[in-house]
Design goal:
GO terms for molecular function: transferase activity. This protein has about 230 residues and is α+β, with helices and mostly antiparallel strands. The protein has a domain at about 90-185: Glutathione S-transferase Yfyf (Class Pi), Chain A, domain 2, CATH 1.20.1050.10. Helix content is about 40%, strand content about 10%. Strands 2-1-3-4 form a four-stranded mixed β-sheet, covered by helices on one side. A two-stranded antiparallel sheet has the order 5-6. The radius of gyration is 17 Å and the shape is globular. The two termini are about 25 Å apart. The chain binds glutathione. Glutathione binds near residues 9, 32, 51 and 52.
Length: about 230
């Protein structure tokens, strides 16, 4: 399978899921401006919306939308039950509920904070995201969102919260979320995915990871450290 991605974008979530499950995947980087893939293909022919992630199955079929992709990946292997409980259980619906919350209530508004076109609305969006993080901070049922098992929803949450420094969200206001980032970022397979996307941390005990060029744009000083 091929995973179309940008470094540190939401496509890092399915990338992490693949590594956690030992799934064989080829990463194909997409140029944000030209919509050309690293192999020169027109990405708009793969996903007409132009955004990542997209998954190309071995038979050429395409699946888009991150929350659907991570569920599909978890169902590709019996191992997937570790990250996505059995269908028909409350535990499964709880993971799906978090996926929906993250995509609608965090991912989208956070993405708008990167976009200068919405600059006038940024203070209001900041307030909204803060309210959602207040709620989420009190929801942890253990080390991870739904308990002590890492799920596909945790992978997605990690990726969205990892954008905090660039959109001026100080995650230290939310201790449970801050601790969660450190915990997920220390998982060996997560570190593997971060390395494969060539991301760096701001400092030795850093919990946020980015491409080298982004680190300077977030106004960070110090020596970036490889995960
Ligand atoms: N609804 C989509 C949104 C994906 C999305 O926002 N992707 C961003 C990266 S995090 C992107 O590729 N943006 C570039 C663009 O829109 O051209 C999903 O959940 O997969």
């Amino acid at each position: 399978m091929k995973l179309y991605m940008h470094a540190a974008a939401c496509s890092l979530s399915p990338h992490i899921v693949c590594r956690e499950l030992g799934l064989d995947i080829e990463l194909v980087e997409v140029d944000r401006k030209t919509h050309r893939t690293s192999s020169g293909d027109d990405y708009l022919a793969i996903n007409g919306n132009g955004y990542v992630p997209a998954l190309m199955l071995d038979d050429g079929r395409i699946l888009t939308e991150g929350p659907a992709i991570v569920q599909f990946l978890a169902e590709c292997t019996p191992e997937g039950e570790r990250l996505l409980p059995k269908a028909g259980t409350y535990a499964r619906s709880q993971v799906q509920s978090y996926l929906n919350f993250i995509t609608a209530e965090l991912h989208k508004p956070m993405a708008m904070l990167f976009n200068a076109a919405y600059e006038g609305a940024h203070p209001g969006i900041h307030e909204l995201v803060s309210k959602r993080l207040d709620w989420l901070n009190g929801r942890f049922a253990g080390a991870y969102l739904t308990g002590n098992d890492f799920t596909i929803a945790d992978a997605y949450l990690f990726v969205c919260l990892n954008w905090s420094p660039w959109i001026k969200i100080d995650l230290s206001r939310w201790p449970a979320l801050h601790g969660f980032m450190a915990r997920v970022g220390a998982r060996p397979k997560v570190r593997q995915a971060l390395q494969e996307e060539d991301l760096e941390a701001f400092e030795a005990d850093g919990i946020f990871f980015a491409p080298h060029s982004y680190i300077a744009s977030a106004g960070r000083s110090g020596t970036p450290v490889r995960p």
